[in-house]
Design goal:
Blueprint lengths: L4 E4 L4 H13 L4 E4 L23 E4 L2 E4 L1 H11 L10 H32 L5 H21 L13 H13 L3 H7 L3 H11 L2 H5 L5
Parallel strand pairs: 1-2
Antiparallel strand pairs: 1-3, 3-4
Length: about 210
């Protein structure tokens, strides 16, 4: 099989999720830069890969995918390497529930409403940040309640749930409010320290 291609930017949380999955599987890949925030706009050619112009998109031997969860599951099932999806029906359902929860309730609040607002705005919207922290707290409480005993979110096996959550929380803790809130959830704090220490997390860090 040929080398898979990831289209996107290394600053993107969702591009990083896909890169983490590839790295944990031990798969060499090509990252084709696509900056959706570029002044000149999204390149016209990219809409053939993602009709909505979002990142990431993925290609493997002529097979194209968009949407991070679909890409991650394809990579896990198409390539050799450690399985990143649990075998048990219920634990796999819990994994999918965590993925959906992170996308629907954690990503926007943690990344955009708190971290980006604090880091990128000259005059941050404090009300937006406060609302984001409230939503982030509920997401962390939910993640804490769903976490199984063991080193990873679903127990002893590293799964797509861990690789999905890590870049989101990694962006959140770039700001002091994120660090303080995470510290209120010791099991998730310990998990975060564990996942952040993995070689794959360092290898997928944004380059300056």
């Amino acid at each position: 099989m040929g080398k898979p291609i990831v289209y996107g930017a290394d600053y993107s949380v969702y591009v990083r999720i896909v890169r983490l999955v590839l790295t944990e599987k031990g798969i060499d890949y090509e990252l084709v830069p696509v900056d959706v925030f570029a002044a000149e706009g999204i390149p016209a050619w990219y809409f053939r890969h993602h009709p909505f112009g979002r990142i990431p998109a993925f290609e493997h031997d002529g097979f194209r995918l968009f949407e991070t969860n679909a890409i991650a599951k394809y990579i896990d099932e198409a390539f050799d390497g450690p399985s990143l999806q649990p075998a048990g029906l219920r634990v796999r359902a819990t994994m999918n529930q965590i993925l959906g929860m992170l996308d629907a309730y954690a990503y926007r609040s943690m990344v955009w409403d708190v971290a980006v607002e604090r880091l990128e705005k000259e005059a941050p919207d404090e009300a937006l940040i406060a609302n984001g922290l409230s939503q982030a707290s509920k997401a962390l409480q939910t993640l804490s309640s769903l976490k199984a005993p063991g080193p990873w979110l679903l127990g002893d096996q590293l799964t797509l749930a861990d690789l999905h959550a890590a870049p989101i929380i990694g962006y959140f803790v770039k700001v002091a409010e994120g660090q303080s809130l995470l510290a209120e959830f010791p099991t998730i704090q310990a998990w975060w320290e564990r996942i952040a220490a993995r070689a794959s997390f360092a290898r997928t860090e944004k380059t300056e």
